[in-house]
Amino acid sequence: MRTTVAIIGAGPAGLLLARLLHRAGVDCVVLEARDRAYVERRQRAGMLEQGAADVLRECGAGDRLDREGLVHRGFELRFEGEAHRVDLPSLTGGRTVTLYPQTEVVKDLIALQLADGPPLLFGARVVAVEKTDGEQPLIRFVTEEPDGTDRTDGTDGTDGAEGPSGPAGPAGPERTLECEYVAGCDGSYGASRRALPPGAVRMHARTYPYSWLGILADVAPSSDELLLAGHERGFALHSMRTPALSRLYIQVPNGTSPGDWPDDRIWDELDVRLAAGGWRLQRGPVLTKSVSGLRSQVIEPMRHGRLLLAGDAAHIVPPSAAKGLNLAFGDVVTMARAFTHWHRSGSTSLIDRYSDNCLRRVWQAQAFSHEMTTLLHTPPGADAYDRAMQLTRLRRLTGPTAAAAELAENYAGAPLI
Ligand code: RFL
Predict the structure, then answer these.
(1) For a 10 Å CB count at each end of the chain, is N or C smaller?
(2) 330 lines ligand 1 (CB under 6 A)
């Protein structure tokens, strides 16, 4: 098989890139290790910046988003038993964010691609990416049958922290795909990162000393907007997936097992951490319960030869600022523009600047995600001084200050197109 751009991974990054390239007339093939049902079921992000929603609309994937997405014009920061609303449009010149689950973004993009897009091979696990230093990279992959095992959320139900896993089922013969460029969109445990020669890139990494216990609950959200609490017992987040499904998280120590937290204990803790005035949290049946660690990673540069990395393959952010999916979209918009320019003009100038152009946005999102994480979480061993610092930062951000405007700007994100 041959193509112009080989895309590894059919997560949001790979699927959006395929869509953008298809519309620009650049040939591509997408290889995805998992089966379609698995990819469409994987619970992860929920919040789209306005720029990300605009890109989906622009490439024809905005119909259901506009019908079913929940537009949010603000969010609340809660601390010391009080709620402080951050109004996005007034602080950002009119920007908003949209709650629309990543599962639905992926379903919409897959449906479009299967209807009229470039080839998308499910169950095609890339085992090697070769010759990225030369003119003609080569991808080796095996096709696998789904074995019915649900590995959606990692080993213990952790959501999305998907580690390297074995084949899904019996592997067929190895096949090859020749191409001119490789887009590595296969997440942090994919084949693209493994193809980087030792010493070719630098990996910056940080692991935070706490995790998130998340639940999906079959109950209508208790608030129309996101509530983020910086309680001295730790962070809590009230979010939603749909008007009938709530998504809630609490900070827990690293190493926590979901089994340590019976449902009532979770609801009681959420009540304490999210408390503000007479507000009441509605309880309901817990549908899923999972623990995920918080980490930051950046690979620098995001390119080696003819292999360009995008999304979680290139960087990870802690979920506290909801930037991961949005950053992935930012990368592939930049990448699609670079490949399109090269395809039309023969010039590699934008491909050569791809990494630098992305990294400015990536580090900005890293900084904001780090700030939100340390602002709202209580580290092990924190004392009264640490808490006073945290409350001082929170008060500054919720007052009529330039800091409040900066918070809103970062939260709503910059336009991508
Ligand atoms: P994905 O989604 O991991 O997709 C990678 C795809 O590559 C496939 N793959 C392979 N295919 C072929 N051969 C191989 N050898 C392969 N190895 C892997 C995989 O099967 C998969 O289909 O990466 P992508 O596309 O870069 O997308 C990144 C986002 O998924 C991620 O950043 C976000 O989910 C992060 N995130 C959030 N981002 C936001 O923008 N807003 C949010 O509100 C938000 N909330 C979250 C989040 C992440 C969370 N977890 C799981 C840490 C909330 C949580 C709890």
Answers:
(1) C
(2) no
Contact 31, 6 (CB under 8 A): yes
Please give the number of the atom of ligand 1 that sits closest to the Cα of 31.
Answer: 12
* Ligand 1 mean position, distance from CA 392 (Å): 34
Q: 315 in ligand 1 pocket by Cβ < 6 Å?
A: no
* Torsion angle of the four alpha carbons 359, 365, 371, 372, in this order, in degrees rounded to the nearest 10: -160
| Residues present in the chain in total | 417
Q: How far, in Å, are 34, 140, 218, 329, 336 from residue 417 at the CA level?
A: 30, 34, 36, 11, 12
> What letter would DSSP give residue 134?
S
Q: How many CA atoms lie within 13 A of 94 on its CB side?
A: 1
What CATH number has the domain spanning 5-70+99-205+297-376?
3.50.50.60
Q: Whose CA is nearest to atom 32 of ligand 1?
A: 324
How crowded is the C-beta side of 138, counted as CA atoms within 13 Å?
Answer: 7
Burial class of residue 1 in the structure, from the number of CB atoms within 10 Å of its CB (0-12 exposed, 13-18 middle, 19+ buried): middle
Domain definitions of the chain by residue range:
5-70+99-205+297-376
The atom number, within ligand 1, closest to the CA of 39 reads: 22
* Mutation to probe ligand 1, out of 144, 186, 207 (largest number of atoms < 8 A from CB): 186
Burial group, residue 399, by CB count within 10 angstroms (0-12, 13-18, 19+):
exposed
Tell me the pTM. 0.93
Instruction: Tell me what pLDDT residue 147 has.
Output: 53
E strand or H helix at 329: helix 324-345
Kindly report the protein residue whose alpha carbon is nearest to atom 53 of ligand 1.
45
Number of H helices, E strands in the chain: 12, 20
Identify the pLDDT of residue 5. Answer: 98
Ligand 1 center–CA 130 separation, angstroms: 24
Q: Helix axis angle, 50-58 relative to 324-345, nearest 10°? A: 40
**Residue 349 has which token pair?**
């100038």
The per-residue pLDDT of the chain, averaged, comes to: 93
- Asked if pLDDT for residue 411 goes beyond 90, the answer is yes
Q: What is the distance in A from the centroid of ligand 1 to the CA of 312?
A: 6
Q: Answer whether 31 contacts ligand 1 (Cβ < 6 A).
A: yes
Task: Output the CA 123–ligand 1 centroid distance in Å.
Answer: 17
Residue 2 DSSP label: B
Is 52 in contact with 416 (CB distance < 8 Å)? yes
Q: Which atom of ligand 1 is nearest to the CA of 318?
A: 52
Ligand 1 in reach of 413 Cβ (< 6 A): no
- Tell me 399's DSSP state: S
